[in-house]
Design brief:
This protein has 2 domains: about 220 residues, Alpha-Beta Complex (Spore Coat Polysaccharide Biosynthesis Protein SpsA, Chain A); about 200 residues, 3 Solenoid (UDP N-Acetylglucosamine Acyltransferase, domain 1). Helices cover about 20% and strands about 30% of the residues. The chain contains 9 helices and 39 strands. It has a 16-stranded parallel β-sheet that branches. It has a 9-stranded parallel β-sheet with strand order 14-17-20-23-26-28-30-33-36, with no helix packed on it. The chain binds uridine-diphosphate-N-acetylglucosamine (UD1) and calcium ion. The site of uridine-diphosphate-N-acetylglucosamine has 29 residues, from strand 1, helix 3 and strand 10.
């Protein structure tokens, strides 16, 4: 059994992001960048301790990661990666195992990669090991200098590298395994005599070599896994890599994705088998889609639970809602937070629903607004129906019983109750409760004035004569 403590570096500002948001809080596939390394440590490596070094926007980060298994330490001034790890030392007191150092801005590394890195480290007698990658463009990364037998000799930062050293394409990923006892002593010997005037963690290698302690470098096969995110371009590259991974995973599990190039899914989205996603859909957050559903082009669905056999037609926007089996939504429907659409119900084009329950088998097929309402089962909501839920000060509820027929162009002025099996005539403004089984109608009686067009013609002729 390996005893591992993880230290995750996340105190930096991320200057190159040019952002008001701390770099590690920038989302990748819907989760903050820092989530990925924290998740590896807590749930895959299952470290004894997970220590996160925070500084810039520490409060926001701690608030966002409210897991009691994480221990936060503060680095008030960002004096370099070596100085960042130094802040974690008090929490390592008495620990004799391996310290795994991860960077919050290197989020794509895989659990298997870390496991094999840790395994190799614990089997050889190195004091320190670094995970490396060979990349096409090493610009910005620390370069790996190996000795004659291939052991690690030194890591030189971009800004401190000689012309010859900058040609090296094997780079430091920022991920290290270090024996705890050495880390505690060695860190204190790191100076800041370099171009950036920072305490470099990478200088730990030279400290170890001076004591003739062995250091090793382990190369990863896929450099994308260990890319560091420093700019918004890197963020887009990382997002794309994870997006493709997510899409592949779903397709292998039986989801049809017609155009993988234009399908955007957050990491947390779940989709059942035999569901089809048409091009250009975005599914976000805690969205769960059942089996045999169809999601047509250009729909955006966030934090929503969708049952089996549901059809979401084109251009629908759905947020924080629940949709039961066999429901049809859209095209061009808008389900706002806290909407619940029960089995076999239909929400048609240009219908907006907010904080409402639409009962089993009920239909609102064309152009309607249903807000703060409870709609029973098998209700028909006619075209152009509006619940007037807001009086300028407060929101009020509309309650519609089972099997109600609401005609077209009806206004329901809330608070109001419509009893079961009642009907509301087209064009009615409902301001009073409607009893069960009644017909409510508020329309002005129609008057037909015969010969109207002739009268009008005469009138216009006279006028023309007057004007001459
Ligand atoms: C660092 C490495 C470089 C490596 C690259 C990999 C050093 C000196 N350089 O460079 O060799 O190739 O990562 O991506 O280690 N941080 C703190 N406190 C600080 C400074 C940084 O917590 O005072 C954190 C940052 O938040 C970030 C990580 O450490 O998560 C790396 O810092 P960054 O400034 O991005 O280092 P790089 O220049 O990328
Ligand atoms: Ca970096």
């Amino acid at each position: 059994m390996n005893y591992i403590v993880t230290v995750i570096l996340a105190a930096g500002k991320g200057t190159r992001m040019k952002s008001d948001l701390a770099k590690v809080l920038h989302p990748i596939l819907g989760l903050p960048m820092l989530h990925y390394t924290v998740d590896l440590s807590l749930n895959h490596i299952k470290a004894e301790k997970t220590i996160v070094v925070v500084g810039h926007q520490a409060d926001q980060i701690e608030e966002r990661f409210g897991d009691s298994r994480i221990e936060f330490v503060h680095q008030d001034e960002q004096l370099g990666t070596g100085h960042a790890v130094l802040q974690a030392l008090p929490l390592l007191h008495g620990f004799t195992g391996t310290v795994l150092i991860l960077c919050g801005d290197v989020p794509l590394v895989k659990a298997e990669t870390l496991r094999s890195f840790i395994d190799t480290f614990s089997r050889n007698d190195s004091t320190l090991a670094v995970l490396t990658a060979v990349v096409k463009d090493p610009y910005g990364y620390g370069r790996i200098i190996r000795g004659e037998e291939g052991w690690l000799e030194r890591i030189v930062e971009e800004k401190d590298a000689s012309d010859e050293e900058s040609l090296i394409r094997e780079i430091n990923t920022g991920i290290f395994c270090v024996r705890s006892a050495f880390l505690m002593e060695g860190l204190k010997e790191i100076g800041k005599e370099n171009v950036q005037g920072e305490y470099y963690l990478t200088d730990l290698v030279e400290v170890a070599r001076k004591r003739d302690l062995r250091c090793s470098a382990h190369m990863v096969a896929d450099p994308v896994e260990v890319m560091g995110i420093n700019t918004r371009m890197d963020l887009a590259t990382a997002t794309e890599a994870l997006r493709q991974e997510k899409i592949k995973e779903l397709m292998l599990a039986g989801v049809t994705i017609i155009d993988p190039r234009t399908t955007y899914l957050d990491r947390t989205v779940e989709i059942g088998k035999d569901t089809t996603l048409y091009p250009n859909c975005t599914l976000q957050g805690k969205t769960r889609v059942g089996e045999r559903c169809v999601i047509e082009p250009n729909s955006k669905i966030s934090d929503t639970e969708i049952g089996d056999g549901v059809t979401i037609r084109s251009h629908s926007v759905i947020t924080e809602s629940r949709i039961e089996d066999e429901v049809t939504i859209g095209p061009f429907a808008h389900l706002r937070p806290l909407s619940e659409v029960k089995t076999r119900a239909k929400i048609g084009n240009f219908v907006e629903v907010k904080k409402s329950i639409i009962g089993k088998g009920s239909k609102a097929n064309h152009m309607a607004y249903i807000g703060d309402s409870l709609v029973g089962e098998e209700v028909n909501i006619g075209a152009g129906t509006i619940t007037c839920n807001y009086d300028g000060f407060e929101k009020h509820q509309t309650i519609i019983g089972d099997r109600v027929f609401v005609g077209s162009n009806v206004e329901l002025v809330a608070p109001v109750k419509v009893g079961s099996r009642s009907s509301i005539g087209a064009g009615t403004t409902v301001t009073k409760d409607v009893p069960e089984g009644a017909l409510a109608i508020s329309r002005v009686k129609q008057k037909n004035i015969r010969g109207w067009s002739k009268k009008m013609e005469l009138h216009h002729k006279k006028n023309r004569k007057k004007k001459g």
